[in-house]
Amino acid sequence: MEKRPLAGKVALVAGGTRGGGRGIAVQLGVAGATVYVSGRSSGSAGSDLGRAETIEETAALVDAAGGTGIAVRADHGDPDQVRALVDRIAADRDGRLDVLVDSVWGGDPLTDWEHPLWEQDLDRGLRLLRRAVETHVITSRFALPLMVARESGLVVEVTDGNTARYRGSFFYDLAKSAVIRLAFAQAAELRPHGVAALAITPGFLRSEAVLDHLGVTEENWRDGAVKDPHFAYSESPAYLGRAVAALAADPDVMAKSGRALATWGLYGEYGFTDVDGTQPDFAAHWADALVDEYGPLGDPL
Question: Which of 173, 274, 275, 276 has the smallest count of CB within 10 Å of its CB?
């Protein structure tokens, strides 16, 4: 891959505040892109998640990586705010948007891992769907016209898992499966206009929240395997980011449109590594250590 294959390209990473979204934004910056980073957690106003990370921090990391980071606070559940965000990009960049990444989530505090549907709080579950699915629909509704007008671009829907395996909680499973279907449906409608759309999942992602939960940092993350042995096979957000940057730089990415992809299925093709030079493959670890307990991952959707 060229050193800066995305120089001159414009990207929007919705939900780029932390985790996979931040990792993707930074790696798009490494590849030379101008990256608009949007979300609710800003230096001027936080979100109900109560996390310390901000969109401004992510934008600064994009700058430090060699790209251009632009933070724009927006609640992607509010159509007016998303419309204003896209209008700003159009005005700033002469209508150009090459990459749309939708990594909006915010569902961790709403996920009930203990109860079946009939025992769950309905309002809480529906709020999860609004955050995790409706936000993606709203974002694409306003951003896609920029790509369609130029007859080029890539839409990336970030999810969890790329198969039909049940994900352990009704509303969580519904949200993550729906995001894959969003990519499939967008691919069908965008194909005549030369725009690709796909879904992508990381493996066991070392997000800030996961690191906090295990009481470690990115510097000593391996110590987290004491509490969770499977964490030894985790991957950093940069690994997901490098996968997306490789896809965005691939002139033949249209061949992957409509598919549900994974970091473990792409590192061999594109040759990217994690920050420590390794190439984590969580599907291989699953087959070795988890399949007897949880069943096979299944074939990609």
Answer: 276
